[in-house]
Amino acid sequence: MRSVIDIKDLSIKEIEEIIAVAEDIIANPQKYAHKCDGKKLATLFFEPSTRTRLSFEAAMYELGGNVLSVSDANTSSASKGESVSDTAKVVSCYADIIAMRHPKEGAPLVAATNASIPVINAGDGGHNHPTQTLADLLTIHREKGHFDNLTVGFCGDLKFGRTVHSLISALSRYSGIKFVLISPDELKLPGYVKTNLSEMGIEFVETKDLVEVMPDLDILYMTRVQGERFFNEEDYLRLKDSYILTPEKLTTAKYDLCILHPLPRVNEISVAVDDDPRACYFKQVLNGKYMRMSLILKLLEVD
Ligand code: NCD
């Protein structure tokens, strides 16, 4: 029984296989329409979410399976004080696989340790978000055809942005990768992530200036400032509009730049950028559903 809590729970070879199955699902959806007949996915979301929960649920329905859902911590037994480990044991009696989002870092790991069914981390606090990374990887693969030798810019909230941490971890395993980390001082990448990069000998630079580095980038990953993880409203209001991507700022960008954003977007990307062929963030949403389908098949060991 396998769980996916961290993107590195999947080897490079397994990620290639998950991408290959996702591509086959895209090409032949009918072939997969009954693969999970009779199976149940429990989505346990103890933190607000629209796309990730619906993406998991759409993925399971498109595989012919069913879904049990907790979409609000206030209406679940967690509000009565139930522990994550007890919730995991109880839900193991009802479902075949769990997708869990939780505001506390490490909660999905606790669930996986106590569940008797696979657990997928659907985002834990400001820590990790491995299935968003799968969506990001399929999008990069479809746009670029490879992961090696890319210069990848991350812009915005690199401190609390869990999607950033997971994607950096995933891309660190490929050769010739360079990271350009664009953020205000207060929202820099956490020290532990930078230490990992240094230990692996991966090149990275930190800057506050998006426009200056724009011509170097193959991928630009914009992020929302994670207001819900701030300790005070004043800091959030001061930092929330630090970067706003506009068509003007893209004039010096490569013609084949790939612009990503895990969404939801607040102000980070002007809607005027949406018509630019380099804007890939809505494709990324759809790719997320296919990668979640592929991951569910893998963890349920369905051929
Ligand atoms: C991200 C998340 O929840 O971390 N959203 C998502 O899952 N697509 C990014 C965000 O909320 O800013």
Written account of the structure:
The chain is an alpha/beta fold and 303 residues long. The protein folds into 2 domains: 134 residues, Rossmann fold; 155 residues, Aspartate/ornithine carbamoyltransferase (Rossmann fold, 3-Layer(aba) Sandwich). The chain is 36% helix and 15% strand. The strands form 2 sheets. It has a 5-stranded parallel beta sheet with strand order 7-6-5-8-9, with helices on one face. Strand 5, helix 6 and strand 6 form a beta-alpha-beta unit. 43% of the residues are buried. The model has no long low-confidence stretch (mean pLDDT 96). The chain binds N-carbamoyl-L-aspartate.
The CA-CA distance between the termini, in Å, is: 15 Å
The string of secondary-structure elements, in order, is HEHEHEHEHEHEHEHEHEH
Query: Averaging pLDDT over every residue, what do you get?
Result: 96
Using the coordinates above, name the CATH class of the largest domain: Alpha Beta
- Ligand list: N-carbamoyl-L-aspartate
Q: How big a fraction of the residues is strand?
A: 5-15%
Mass-distribution shape: globular
Number of domains: 2
CATH architecture of the largest domain: 3-Layer(aba) Sandwich
Total strand segments: 9
Annotation field: number of helices: 10
